[in-house]
Amino acid sequence: MSASTLHHPVLSDTEFRQFQTMIYDIAGISMSPAKKQLVGGRLAKRVKQHGLSSYGDYFKILMRKENRDELQAAIDLLTTNETYFFREPRHFDFLQRSIAELRRPGRTFRVWSAASSSGEEPYTIAMVLADVLGEDAWEVVGSDISTRVLDKARGGHYPMTRIDGISRQHLSRYCLKGVGEHEGTFLIDRNVRNRVSFLQVNLNEPLPKLGEFDVIFLRNVMIYFDMETKQRVVERMLPLLRPGGYFIVSHSESLNGITNALKAVAPSVYRKPNA
Asked: In angstroms, how far is CA 244 from the centroid of its own chain?
């Protein structure tokens, strides 16, 4: 065995299956064998940082109860967080049109972004709500399993390379351009940030008390779940959707065969019947 092999352990099939089972049990995410290289690459730094000679030794560390922080770090690395502002823009056009019919006097209008990643989706939702509702009572809840992306989301601070999709009007109204040491970045305006809260939620476990929502976004996350997990996740979420409210998935997803409790009203948009 060469010295380079000793310094760079290779993820074996058996070790990959351990991580595959772990991420499925914890987060409900199904990883195909094609993801073996990705898993090895993403965890390599942690293996090296701990001075370990194998991925199997790293897995043993993750399984110890006292290492919850390290387990969270591994989950953060193994969950995919691709997102951008105004992704699948038709959904936000739909949201804008729907607010008037869903809002009720004296009630806070609430939207949940259930796989919020680094915050682009919930802040996009917030810009739409601010356009329509202004200073009225409204709020957005963003949740994710990854603490790393949630920390980034709370800051609302992004490189200018992320502005694609944000209209000039929304940029001038809700974004602050960085100057000096912050040049090349932008910050979501404080008035918008204050309406968005972020918390860690594992959709594969019983949900915390989040209250009821007029609209729920669950986009680009079910593609990682098998059918049984999809059914369980949606079943957990439905009680949190107000009667008459909308449940929105991505254009590449569908609730066919997952639930009969919602009615399709537009591509990838479903409605909960009024009580």
From this structure: 24
What is the C-alpha separation between 192 and 124, in angstroms, rounded?
A: 10
Fold of 3-78: Chemotaxis Receptor Methyltransferase Cher; domain 1 (1.10.155)
- CATH second-level architecture of 90-271? 3-Layer(aba) Sandwich (3.40)
Q: Are strands 157-159 and 185-188 parallel, antiparallel or unpaired?
A: antiparallel
Active-site choice (42, 232, 236, 271):
42
Active site residue 17: no
Q: What is the pTM of this model?
A: 0.86
The whole-angstrom distance between residue 132's C-alpha and the CA centroid of its chain comes to 24
Could you identify the residue written with the tokens 């009024």?
274
Catalytic entry in 76, 110, 144, 242: 144
What pLDDT digit, counting tens, does each position of 133-162 carry?
999 999 999 999 999 899 999 999 999 999
Let me know if 42 is a catalytic residue: yes
- On whether the CB atoms of residues 140 and 168 are closer than 8 A, the answer is no
Q: How many CB atoms lie within 10 A of CB 100?
A: 9
